[in-house]
Design a protein that fits this description.
This protein is mostly helical and 138 residues long. The protein contains five helices and two strands. Keywords: Coiled coil.
Amino acid sequence: MSKIYTLSEVSRLMGASEPLILYWISLGRFPGVTLEEPVFRPDTKCVSPYGETLTIAEIEELYHQEQKRLGRDKPITLEEEIQILKDEIRYFEEKYGGPFEKTLGAKRELSSDEERDAVEWESLLRSLERRISNLNSQ
């Protein structure tokens, strides 16, 4: 049986948020993958905005090469992952001058850039919440 990649795995391999991967699916950048069932196989193709095509297996290989080059080929702890998420959230808090609920979360209308940031920020907050819950249940 062929390996199946989840949305979360593809997100990690590509260094893009899950909402962004879903947006790319809606644009047709993953031919054959649907929003209703975002399932990826090693031979699933990803088409870049410039028309270049790589399979998920090729993307995974490039990811591992880059992680090794950067000295990040060792697994990180849950605590380290939580700190990374906090750092990414802090970026948005500094950019918008406060927590999500009091900035983008409180606005009625968002620009396209703010909307993109809001989706990413909310995704990070949900990921942080899940990781902290996992840490507390250990």
